[in-house]
Write a structure and sequence with these properties.
Elements: E1 9-13, H1 18-30, E2 34-39, H2 42-51, E3 59-63, H3 69-79, E4 83-86, H4 93-98, H5 100-119, E5 126-132, H6 157-176, E6 180-185, E7 188-189, H7 198-210, E8 217-220, E9 226-227, E10 230-231, H8 232-245, E11 251-254, E12 260-261, H9 262-272, E13 278-281, H10 299-305, H11 313-330
Parallel strand pairs: 1-2, 1-4, 2-3, 4-5, 5-6, 6-11, 7-10, 8-13
Antiparallel strand pairs: 9-12
Helix pairs in contact: 1-8, 3-5, 5-6, 7-9, 7-11, 9-11
C-alpha cells in the first residue's frame, strides 16, 4: 500500500467492473483518500495497477477472491480501510436465471466474508452494501413510486440474492454494531457497461449496423416494460455521499424518479442511428417474469444529502452509443 498514514483508505471490491472504475475515478477527483482496488485474481490486479499507474501514491491494486474468507481477511488486515465499497457481485438477471445457485452463493457468501472480515478489525470501517431495485421485484402498479418501505417481492434469483445480502448486512448492524449503510440502486447505465444489459445491447447493435458489420436488424425482448434509469456517473456520486453522510443501519433508494419504457430507449438510439433499422423480437431475450412498471422514490436520500441526477437519459444514451461506435471501430 502507498504511504497513507494521514489519509483514509477506501477499499473497493469489484474495482475492475463497470461501476468500480467510475467510482475509483470519482473518489480520486473528490477526495484525498488512498484507494485499495480489489480484483478477483492476479491478472486483474495487474491490469488495475497499469490502469492507475499515474497515481502511485494514491492507488494500490490487490488480488483477493472475495468468495475466499481467508483472502478477504488478509486484504482487510493489509489495508485497514476506513471505508469499504462492496460492489463485487454477479449482477446479470439472465445469468441468475441460468444458474441460480452460482448467483446466490457468490453474492451471499462474498458479502458474508466481507462482513466477517470487517468485524474482525479493531476499528471496523464504514461499509456501503450495494443493493438493487430487483429486491422490490413484483411491484404492483399502485406501489409506484417505490420507496424504502415497499414490500420486497423479488421475482428472480438475482433479486433474491440481493434481498439476502441486504438483510445480512442489516443483521450485522443489529448484532455487532457494524457501521453498514445499505443502498438500493435502480437501473444504472453508461459507457463501458456490458452488452448483457439492455441499453448497451441496443447501442452495440446500432454501432455494428452503422459499421456494416451486422444486418440492419436489432433483436429485442419486451419493449413495453418501464424502468427507472440513472447514469452511472450520478450513481457513484451518490455512493460517495452515502458512505460519508448516511446513517449506519439505514437503507436508501438511488434512482432518477422517472420511468422510461424500453421502447423509448430503443427509439432514442434509433434516432441517433445513421441507417434504417428493422426491429425483431428475440424470444431468448424475454424473462419468465417481467414487471410492467417500476419507478423509484429517492426522497429520503435527497433530503439527507441534496443528491439528484445531473445527467439526463438522452445524454447517457448518446454517450453509450459513442462508446460502442469507438469499440466497433477498434474491432477487427
Amino acid at each position: 500500500m502507498p504511504d497513507s498514514s494521514t489519509k483514509p483508505i477506501a477499499l473497493i471490491t469489484g474495482a475492475s467492473g463497470f461501476v468500480g472504475r467510475y467510482l475509483a475515478r470519482h473518489l480520486l477527483e473528490v477526495s484525498d483518500w488512498t484507494l485499495a482496488l480489489v480484483s478477483r485474481n492476479e491478472a486483474g490486479a495487474v491490469r488495475l495497477a497499469d490502469e492507475y499507474a499515474r497515481y502511485p501514491d494514491r492507488v494500490a491494486a490487490l488480488a483477493a477472491d472475495i468468495s475466499d474468507a481467508k483472502a478477504v481477511q488478509e486484504a482487510l488486515a493489509r489495508t485497514c480501510p476506513s471505508y469499504v465499497f462492496h460492489l463485487a457481485a454477479q449482477t446479470s438477471v439472465k445469468d441468475a436465471l441460468d444458474d441460480p445457485a452460482a448467483t446466490l452463493g457468490n453474492n451471499l457468501f462474498s458479502t458474508l466474508n466481507l462482513l466477517e472480515g470487517t468485524r474482525a478489525l479493531a476499528e471496523p470501517p464504514r461499509l456501503l452494501a450495494i443493493g438493487s431495485s430487483e429486491e422490490y421485484g413484483h411491484v404492483r402498479p399502485e406501489d409506484n413510486p417505490v420507496d424504502e418501505h415497499t414490500e420486497l417481492r423479488p421475482d428472480n434469483p438475482y433479486g433474491v440474492s440481493k434481498v439476502a445480502t441486504d438483510m445480512l448486512a442489516l443483521q450485522y448492524v443489529f448484532s455487532y454494531k457494524l457501521p453498514v449503510i445499505r443502498v438500493r440502486a435502480f437501473n444504472h447505465i453508461g459507457p463501458g457497461q456490458s452488452d448483457r444489459f439492455v441499453t448497451a445491447s441496443f447501442a452495440r447493435q446500432v454501432a455494428l449496423i452503422e459499421a456494416g458489420k451486422q444486418e440492419p436488424v436489432i433483436k429485442v425482448g419486451n419493449l413495453s416494460s418501464q424502468r427507472d434509469f440513472t447514469d452511472v456517473r450520478d450513481i457513484v456520486r451518490a455512493y460517495y455521499l452515502a458512505i460519508t453522510q448516511s446513517q449506519p443501519g439505514e437503507v436508501y433508494n438511488l434512482c432518477s424518479e422517472q420511468s422510461t419504457s424500453i421502447q423509448a430507449v430503443l427509439d432514442t438510439l434509433l434516432n441517433f442511428c445513421t441507417v434504417r433499422v428493422r426491429v425483431e423480437l428475440d424470444q431468448t431475450r424475454l424473462r419468465p417474469s417481467d414487471v410492467p412498471l417500476i419507478v423509484g422514490n429517492a426522497a429520503k436520500f435527497r433530503q439527507l444529502t441534496g443528491w439528484k441526477p445531473a445527467i439526463g437519459l438522452r445524454q447517457s444514451l448518446a454517450d453509450i452509443l459513442d462508446y460502442w461506435r469507438a469499440q466497433v471501430r477498434s474491432e477487427p
